[in-house]
Backbone:
């Protein structure tokens, strides 16, 4: 059986969805497509913007489950999806959740699909800040899924564990010494070959994936998720690093989403609360203007390959595009378009691509021709 995850509100997740479909975003320990794949025991493809489909979509034939990519799976929902028959659509209120088709991915059939109402509650994400708002419950679900019938490595006696041992899991090759871990408030997952350096204090829910490093004396408040090959230090609260990004030094980051290959310079600080204690306005790519988020705590969303200079101050509810370079005194603008170089110049596509390839090679990764085409599409994107 095929699985196709379909984006319905892609713009609400910009700028981190500029370079990937919504189903490729991390929420909890896993990305959304990984959650579905593990629960269904099937591989998936994604349907999003045309320029993204070149990398993430391939044609499917025969029996296919078509799933709304904003939906976060649980056991009951997966059972309901698997029970669908040909040309049946699972709905909840006015939202479609999943469709079953025996003729592959064929939108022409959707209008005639037989509706089935899903009677239970379910979790979903509807904006980039929903990713960190749902992060705590998703860490717990993913923790149970990943660690089922597996045995954790023991925690060294040089560490202090506060809370239940069964909410801590350490994969093979992980190194953690001289740290304080608190699982009273959520599970803690340490991935394969990850390192948590001495003096770090971590309150769950928390996950750090393969080959990432938590720097000396880091303070982390959950629920926080760190993807693979990241370097994270300073103080972090309720944030998600998609992967391959660095915040190696002191500085505060809260209620934020960080894309891949991002570098936050030393003492970069991000405000997550207005001094008026009122809801924050945030740039909407969909509305092409600032809109009220309805959120009291809202940090920043930073697209792939963007960088900040030392001592950069990021304002509450900031949106920073892809391949942007921030530097200079005072607070940065709340909306920084992709390929910005400071406040006045533009980063050329050719130079950005060369730097991006160099950054990826530092972690043993190689960018593809498809990645180059995606970057070209973003460069030509008009607000």
Residues:
């Amino acid at each position: 059986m095929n699985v196709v995850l379909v984006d319905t509100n892609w713009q609400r997740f910009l700028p981190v969805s500029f370079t990937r479909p919504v189903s490729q975003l991390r929420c909890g320990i896993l990305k959304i497509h990984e959650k579905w794949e593990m629960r269904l025991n099937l591989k998936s493809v994604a349907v999003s913007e045309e320029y993204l489909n070149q990398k993430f979509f391939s044609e499917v034939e025969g029996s296919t489950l078509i799933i709304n990519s904003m939906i976060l799976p649980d056991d009951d929902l997966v059972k309901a999806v698997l029970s669908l028959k040909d040309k049946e659509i699972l709905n909840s209120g006015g939202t479609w959740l999943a469709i079953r088709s025996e003729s592959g991915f064929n939108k022409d059939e959707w209008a005639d699909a037989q509706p089935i109402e899903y009677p239970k509650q379910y979790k979903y994400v509807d904006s980039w800040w929903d990713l960190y708002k749902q992060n705590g419950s998703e860490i717990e679900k993913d923790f149970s899924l990943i660690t089922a019938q597996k045995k954790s490595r023991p925690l060294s006696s040089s560490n202090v564990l506060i809370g239940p041992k069964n909410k801590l899991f350490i994969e093979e090759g992980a190194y953690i010494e001289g740290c304080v871990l608190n699982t009273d408030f959520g599970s803690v997952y340490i991935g394969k070959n990850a390192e948590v350096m001495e003096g770090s204090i971590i309150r769950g829910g928390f996950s750090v994936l393969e080959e990432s490093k938590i720097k000396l004396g880091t303070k982390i408040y959950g629920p926080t998720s760190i993807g693979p090959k990241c370097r994270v230090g300073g103080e972090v609260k309720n944030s998600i690093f998609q992967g391959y990004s660095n915040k190696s030094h002191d500085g505060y980051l809260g209620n934020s989403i960080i894309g891949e290959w991002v570098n936050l310079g030393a003492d970069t600080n991000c405000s997550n609360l207005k001094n008026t204690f009122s809801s924050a306005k945030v740039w909407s790519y969909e509305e092409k203007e600032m809109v009220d988020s309805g959120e009291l705590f809202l940090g920043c969303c930073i697209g792939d390959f963007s960088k900040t200079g030392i001592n950069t101050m990021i304002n509450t509810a900031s949106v920073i595009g892809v391949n942007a370079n921030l530097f200079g005194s005072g607070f940065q603008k709340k909306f920084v378009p992709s390929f910005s170089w400071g406040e006045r110049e533009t980063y050329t596509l050719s130079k950005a691509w060369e730097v991006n390839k160099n950054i990826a090679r530092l972690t043993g990764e190689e960018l593809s021709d498809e990645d180059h085409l995606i970057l070209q599409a973003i460069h030509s994107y008009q607000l």
